[in-house]
Amino acid sequence: RITPSYVAFTDEERLIGDGAKAQASWNPENTIFDAKRLIGRKYDDPDAQKKMDHWPFSIINEGGQSKYEIQYNGETKKLTPEEISSMVLTKMKEVAETFIGHTVTDAVI
Q1: What are the structural domain ranges in the chain?
Q2: Which residues of the chain have pLDDT under 50?
Q3: Which residues are within 8 A (CB) of 17 and not within 5 positions of it... i.e. 6 or more apart?
Q4: CATH number given to 6-100
Q5: Taking Cα atoms as reference points, which of 53, 49, 7 lies closest to residue 30?
Q6: Which of 1, 9, 41, 106 pairs as cysteine with 45 (C-beta 3.0–4.6 A)?
Q7: For residue 62, what are the CA distances in angstroms to 44, 53, 66, 79, 83?
């Protein structure tokens, strides 16, 4: 089973994976994908800038670092690509633990 690396934010909840991808068309500015493309890259990196031009969500420059600016629970939040990726990986850990029936303590990424 493949889980899409999407994280979406609404007024009520945070969605990860299929749920996030399913609502991307009506909430594009708060649905983040391709976060791994910005990990380790500065905001002004030419490759990062090319990608930013094609994404529907807002990416801001904060001290040279790229941050996603989203609306969640009625507040504006600024999140790093690493934070978004962490949310996806945490969800994957939960899915794996449910499937195997015990706690996962080690993983290779």
Answers
A1: 6-100
A2: none
A3: 3, 4, 6, 88, 91
A4: 3.30.420.40
A5: 7
A6: 41
A7: 11, 18, 6, 10, 15
The residue among 43, 45, 8 whose CA lies nearest residue 29 is 8
For residues 97 and 108, give the distance between their C-alpha atoms in angstroms, rounded to a whole number. Answer: 15
First to last CA, the chain: 17
d(CA 24, CA 3): 15
Q: Looking at the whole model, is its pTM more than 0.85?
A: yes
Max intra-chain CA distance, the chain: 45
Upper half-sphere CA count for residue 8 (Cβ side, 13 Å)? 21
pLDDT score recorded for residue 43: 97
What is the pLDDT at residue 23? 94
**Residue 109 pLDDT:** 83
Q: Which token pair is 94?
A: 């939960």
